[in-house]
Structure prediction request, 289 residues.
Amino acid sequence: MKLTARLSSMTRPLAGLAAAIGLLLAPSCATVNPVTGRRAYNIYSLDDDVKLGQAVLESNNEQLREAGVPINQDAQTLRKLEHMVARIAAVSDLPDLPYTVTLYHTNLVNAAAAPGGAIMVFEGLWHPEDGLVRDDDELAAVLAHEVAHITCRHTTERLTQVTTAALLAETAAAVATSRSNEDWAQGIRAAFAVGTTLWIPAYSRRDEREADRVGMFYMARAGYPPQAMVRIWERASQRPGTPQRASIFATHPSSRERLDHLQALLPEAERVYQESRARAEASGVSPSH
Prediction:
């Protein structure tokens, strides 16, 4: 049988299966994003986010310890990071999550967020030559971006897509196997394994823009000048290339479009920042860091 004919014979039942699976999953995972108000699909609860994030953090710590990377050895810097995250989280849309900060003493230029509140920071962020940030305001901008990924629940939304795609692929493979076509079934599974790395990245372009926008307003509400986030990406966009080692530039691509997006948001974010400072001063609380 020609490949096109085989594809046609598989497509008809799979279309029905996809629709049936969609109807099955939709009532259980159709949600409203707690931050943006957009309709989203997430089969995970907030409690699941916390448990998953803790598992990710423990696994990350284990791997880095095995690689000889010291963890949380600078108590003063760790306290500063925890204070900054606490300020930002307090004005976020999900302030009651168990936010934590883990500090890794390596020159990796990165920060990351696991679902449920775990934030991982690498010392390379403020490396004098290769680093991304130059002062505490810029560091707060990076942390606010990561808090936004957590509150927008980007990771478990993406995992929901992977889970649904895996279910469809396995169902297709089962149909192929039932028709005594094991080679075709293996091909479907292999195609899914490759495809997920191509069209289901860790964070989508929309996720990054969303985290930029939400993070900028979080830092403004927390009393950090939002101009700092613009400075970071102005500097990043002028870099000739990405450092060879893994870095924040690889997972958070800098582009003129992204910088333009932040600059367009800046006037409103500045207004929110000034209001935050005025409230702090009126209540007798110093707006300083």
About this structure: The chain has one domain: 19-289. The chain is about 65% helix and 5% strand.
